[in-house]
Amino acid sequence: MLVLQINSVCGYGSTGSIAVDLASVLNKEGHSCHIAYGQSSTTYSPSYKIGGRMENHLHNLCSRLFGNQGYYTHNGTLRLLGYIRKIAPDVIHLHNLHGNYLHIGLLFELLSELEVPVVWTLHDCWAFTGKCTHYTTVGCTKWKTGCHQCPLYRAYPPSLFFDRSQQLYEDKKRWFTSLPKMTIVAVSDWLSKEVSMSFLNKYPQEQIYNWIDNTIYYPHPSNRWLHAVIPTDKFVVLSVSGAWTAGSSRYEDAVQLAGMLPDDMQLVLVGNRTAGTHFPPGVIHIPYVNSGEQLAQLYSMADVFVHFSTEDTFGKVIAESMACGTPVVVYNSTACPELLAPGCGYVVQPRRVEDLFLSIQKIRESGKSQFTIPCIENVRSRFGYHTNTHQYLDLYQQVAML
């Protein structure tokens, strides 16, 4: 069986790592897997780069100027279609199609013609909205009937001047409901329920959690490089984000929490810091960490992990932290609380930073060791690498036989 995966990135970030994990499992089981991707670079082979650097930059520019993301990279997409016809996959697995690297209409025209079984894993909500990847914070439900007057048209994927949400919604609905054979995979129960209220509910749906590699994410012993950065005599509160941006709710809540922590507690924030973003004195900032092993060391040395997000379809950093035996505190929003099990930490109402602090204090009083075993067992039983990746293999074989 030959599977082709299509994603914005390959081997980088959350979805890129997922794609390579699935490819590795397929190869070990005697199958073949190609990955077509749009941004950055990869060491995985066989892979196919969609579009050139200049073409993708132009896509990004036109998307921002005119608001039509997914209508460019025309030549790159035509070459991709030729590649698909050449390798003749038995199953095509879609991941993130947003990211300024595909002409989505052309892709779905071909998928409709070929009638190759399609599996589409939704890692966010973009596939069934006119524009946004998330809508919970602004409380928008227009996607259930038809997007227009988008309150997030300037948010990712950004449009500087025009709100094209109505056109985008109508085009996406037409494209994405045109396939004769497609199965939707939601990465959480929360997302599954959202999909069931969208135009994608015409397709069969599976719910498969993302997974954590326990050969990487497990309680690591104390590490010398961390000792040079983080005090060993303090109670460490850790949070990891792809980016910290001034004005965002994550940043604001982190700053507020930093002001509440006593001198014997240390807040450590990991992730890129965008231009103009500054942290209060006393906060330790570590730039984005792509190494799983280094992340695992950070999770392991922390006494508690705090997740400031109010919008997550899975929240992999939450599960990674628990796999390393570190309890978590999350907001009661989207899929975040779904990942916890009894004894793994606390759930508080969104943006209630005072309650975050109280939960941190409870963990400190109980001691991290009281949470370690429940955290590890929760991850191994629900987010196991072998079990969850093989659910996809079973799904591939099932749809290939239809």
Please render the helix and strand layout as text.
Layout: E1 2-7, H1 13-28, E2 32-37, E3 47-49, H2 53-66, H3 74-87, E4 91-94, H4 104-114, E5 118-122, H5 165-176, E6 182-186, H6 189-195, E7 205-207, H7 224-227, E8 235-244, H8 249-260, E9 265-273, E10 284-286, H9 292-301, E11 304-306, H10 316-323, E12 328-331, E13 345-348, H11 353-366, H12 369-382, H13 385-400
Helix pairs in contact: 1-13, 3-4, 4-5, 8-11, 10-12
Give a written overview of the molecule.
The protein contains 13 helices and 13 strands. The protein is an alpha/beta fold. It folds into two domains: 2-211 and 385-400, Glycogen Phosphorylase B (Rossmann fold); 224-382, Glycogen Phosphorylase B (Rossmann fold). The protein has a seven-stranded parallel β-sheet, sandwiched between helices. Strands 10-9-8-11-12-13 form a six-stranded parallel β-sheet, sandwiched between helices. Strand 8, helix 8 and strand 9 (265-273) form a beta-alpha-beta unit. The radius of gyration is 21 Å and the shape is globular. The protein starts with a strand and ends with a helix. 44% of the residues are buried. The mean pLDDT is 95.
